[in-house]
Amino acid sequence: MIAVVGHEELPPDTSAMVERELRVRLERYADPAPGLVRVGSGASVPFARAVRASGRQLVAVLPARGAVPAPLPPRDLEPARELMALAEEVRLLAYDPADRDSRVRADEALVARSDLLLAVWDGSPTNGRDATAHMVAYARAHGVRVEVVWPVGAVRGATAPSVPAARPSCRTKERR
């Protein structure tokens, strides 16, 4: 299996660049391993499109409560629709899609089932919400090969830098 993790806040231009880069990488692999993706916003849809364009099967993982799919947060509804249309197989996994720690555990389960992790990651450390840096470290610690995908010119959100972000100083921390 080839899994993906990545930043959730990808503007449309960055999402298109990521999708192109993922297609190029997937087309290089002779192994016809399927793509494995957890339903959500961010890197999941560009990855799913790239998987299908490369002729591979797509396995989408939905959150579950018991044997029933769990409700998705509003931001994940549109990506879920597209992922369900692209997937040949849908699997249920017990996790809460509204809880960051639960999503991280779900991603860890996907990574553990994979031979390769494609990480849509700008190289920044975790910010307490985004767990991409954690997932890269987790995969490497568990012997899963990792390839970082961050095309030149890619950005996060509306004002994110295209180079790895420095840790914020106390003066620049956002207050909540």
Termini, distance in Å? 39 Å
Helix/strand-derived class? alpha/beta
Helical content, roughly? 25-40%
Mean pLDDT: 87
Largest sheet: 7 strands, mixed
Tell me the series of helices and strands, N- to C-terminal: EHEHEEHEHEHE
Total strands: 7
Shape category = globular
Strand content: 15-25%
Question: Rg to the nearest angstrom?
Answer: 16 Å
State the helix count.
5
Instruction: List the uncertain runs.
Output: 159-176
Topology, please?
Elements: E1 2-6, H1 12-28, E2 35-38, H2 44-53, E3 58-65, E4 68-69, H3 74-86, E5 89-94, H4 100-112, E6 116-120, H5 132-141, E7 145-149
Parallel strand pairs: 1-2, 1-6, 2-3, 3-5, 6-7
Antiparallel strand pairs: 3-4
Helix pairs in contact: 1-2, 2-3
Explain the overall architecture.
Helices cover 36% and strands 20% of the residues. The chain is built from five helices and seven strands; from the N terminus they run βαβαββαβαβαβ. Strands 1, 2, 3, 4, 5, 6 and 7 form a seven-stranded mixed sheet that branches. α1 runs parallel beside α2 (44-53). The N and C termini lie far apart (39 Å).
Q: In brief, what are we looking at here?
A:
The chain has 5 helices and 7 strands. With 176 residues, the chain is an alpha/beta fold. Strands 1, 2, 3, 4, 5, 6 and 7 form a 7-stranded mixed beta sheet that branches.
List keywords for this structure.
176 residues; alpha/beta; globular; disordered C terminus
